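WARN retry 2 of 3 for item q-0093 after timeout on previous attempt; input resubmitted unchanged.
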Amino acid sequence: MQYTDYTEQTTFNKRGKPATVRIDGKAQGRIYFSNQAVAILGLRAGDRIAFRTYDHDKGVIYFYPQATGFTLSAGSSGLSIYSRPLANKLLEALGFVKDQHKTIGVKNECVLMPGTKCQAWMLVKEDIHKPIKWRKNPC
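OK item q-0093 returned
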């Protein structure tokens, strides 16, 4: 017999929205952390984070707090970093075409980055968020 536990950690918030990071490489060039992602990662406006990729780790982007990183700016529904070059480099690192946007699910799971003693969160290509597209009934 298999059991499934439903707790705050395993269930979406009351609105049903997952924690996501949206990378927009278009005109605005923004990396956007949703309110849910901000809450579970413990980020605040003014925090600085840096991103790291590894050649042997395709489809994974690490991000972590760093004093020389990009500053998170407050928005109406989350935190953002405005940098079109960064957004496009992150899209390419995940294997996507530049100048588009992708939304990726994020979890509060830290890993030890290779070659350092630094803890980092991850964005993984397999966690691409695919919202349900509602359409009118043709009948």
